What we know:
single chain, seven-stranded antiparallel sheet, five-stranded antiparallel sheet, 2 helices, 10% helix, elongated
Amino acid sequence: MLVKLIMKVLSNLFGLNKKISASDIAVKDNNGKAKTLNNYLEKNILTAYFSSFKSTGSLSPVTGLNTGIQIGSKLSVVDNGIKIGSGISKVLVSGWGFNNSNSNGSGFIAGITKNGSLVSNPFSTSSWQMSKTANDNITMIISPMLIDVVEGDIVNIGLGINGNTGNYFSRGAVTVEVIE
């Protein structure tokens, strides 16, 4: 009964022979703004990778990013992170970095950055730290975290090795997914 009523309303609006697409239907977002259904359902996900990042001795955003996989057009890669496009207020950020240097290291740190500053990390109110001995490999994984953003913000993962500027992270990646 309800389906029949909906179909009757739609046929009165669009005619019996017109196909209805997602761009014909409007949906209100969480802020009460109307969006077409295809824009409301549009996915925006970007994964960027790096092949070498030298530690500055403290936590800093990864540089030298290259676009890996991209869905949608509201995110873009810049040298020091992923730039947020218009109409985005929340993103999910995750990433990882791999270090296989032949030297000892301590104070390996990782976190999520926004506009160059640490905003959150998965382990504590300060950045997560761990140590390794020579010839050990270490992979630092940053679990997905939801952060608030505005157009123009640059989000990234930050990696570092406290007090050691000679160590390199030989590869890694950052993924940003638009939530709203």
